[in-house]
Write a structure and sequence with these properties.
This protein is an all-alpha fold and 102 residues long. The radius of gyration is 18 Å and the shape is elongated. The model has no long low-confidence stretch (mean pLDDT 91).
Length: 102
Amino acid sequence: MKSKDHFKRPVSNKRVGINDKFWGRYIGLVKNVVIPYQWDALNDRIPDAELSHVIENFKIAAGLSQGEFYGNVFQDSDLAKWLEAVGFSLAVNPNPELEKRA
């Protein structure tokens, strides 16, 4: 086997960890601050912020709430991006409460 052959095989993100102080700070920030803040923003719970209406639009589409679509047609991607961030976070930092919310 050539020495560079190991670079050709994918590695599961569950087998990779980041223990660096620099990156650890940002991983913690995303996990503890950014993800919860984004959830509040998607649910229009940030005082004085422009309404996103993202979650409410999904509730309306599912028939769980009354109203009309509000915002841009691509706003559903904001929730998809949040779910992606949550998935990456949960892969390395299990959190049953966050998993239930997602």
